[in-house]
Specification:
The protein is mainly alpha-helical and 291 residues long. It is 83% helix and 0% strand. Helix 3 packs across helix 9, helix 5 runs antiparallel to helix 6 and helix 6 runs antiparallel to helix 13. The N and C termini lie close together (6 Å).
């Protein structure tokens, strides 16, 4: 993995964990997400126009922007519902861990990427660390009754979020080959906000949306800008490195998410989260050194 891509991904991880922390603290997570997208689309409109003039989008690029917007509708709905029903230090690791577990497989099968031994060991350590954070002390119960973890609605939505993460990671790897990464991110933001609007009005109504904005507008705007920065940097990294390496490496943010959940939100902390975080960091080193 290139040093440039690694730096981008680490900065992205800090930004990503930070906006997820702010989202968890919102009153209505789905309304928070919708406002986050809308406010970012409005604030960054001048930037989007300038980039579009400098880097015009080719025909295929518009289809990839449309596709990623539709995929991200599911991502934000599942993520919002997960946080509404589960702890940050539980939902975040599962969502961010199950996706990267699938990405290298899809990268090899769909994009014909190759994975070195060092990267394979690193990805394995990251995935193992992610699930250690959540499953520590419950391995025997889970092995005896694997369906038990699906009884928790927060976990179910976290797993669905992970599946969507794997899907958009591979889709976007191809998409940024046709569109400037930050223009691609802006197009995704606008498209997702538009497609989410009918769902939000039908499910929550205008009054709930107004209340969420009134209560958390500063956090919403900050989250929107952090979201744009976080994924924009990842998309840039995808132009110089393999998706099989980038997707797992960005999950160093899980360590940050666990710390925010336990230290700030006072969620439970145990040895499993310490061991899991160590495995994630060790895996990051392996992937960083991989050719």
């Amino acid at each position: 993995m290139t040093g440039f891509a690694l730096v981008l991904v680490i900065i992205s991880a800090f930004a990503h964990a930070s906006w997820n922390f702010l989202l968890k603290r919102g009153t209505n997570q789905e309304a928070f997400i919708w406002w986050m997208l809308v406010s970012t689309a409005i604030l960054l409109l001048p930037l989007g126009v300038v980039i579009l003039v400098i880097y015009p989008v080719e025909g295929p690029g518009w289809w990839y922007i449309l596709g990623t917007a539709l995929i991200h509708v599911l991502y934000f709905v599942f993520l919002g519902r997960g946080y509404a029903r589960g702890n940050l230090s539980v939902v975040y690791p599962i969502a961010r861990g199950s996706g990267p577990a699938l990405v290298p497989v899809l990268g090899v099968l769909v994009l014909d990427e190759s994975v070195s031994i060092e990267a394979f060991l690193g990805i394995g350590a990251i995935v193992l660390g992610i699930f250690t954070v959540h499953w520590w002390g419950r391995f025997s119960d889970i092995l005896g009754n694997p369906t038990r973890i699906l009884r928790d609605p927060g976990t179910r939505y976290a797993l669905l979020t992970g599946l969507i993460i794997a899907t958009y990671s591979v889709w976007d790897k191809v998409g940024v080959g046709h569109v400037n990464p930050f223009l691609y991110m802006y197009g995704m933001t606008v498209g997702t906000a538009v497609f989410l609007t009918p769902y939000m009005l039908r499910t929550h109504g205008a009054m709930v949306l107004k209340q969420e904005w009134a209560q958390a507008k500063m956090a919403i705007v900050a989250s929107g800008l952090l979201t744009f920065l976080a994924y924009g940097l990842v998309l840039t990294a995808l132009t110089t490195s393999k998706v099989s390496y980038v997707a797992p490496t960005r999950e160093v943010g899980i360590v940050i998410g666990v710390l925010l959940g336990t230290l700030v939100l006072k969620e439970p902390f145990g040895g499993g989260r310490l061991v899991g975080s160590g495995l994630i960091l060790m895996g990051l080193v392996f992937v960083a050194l991989a050719p």
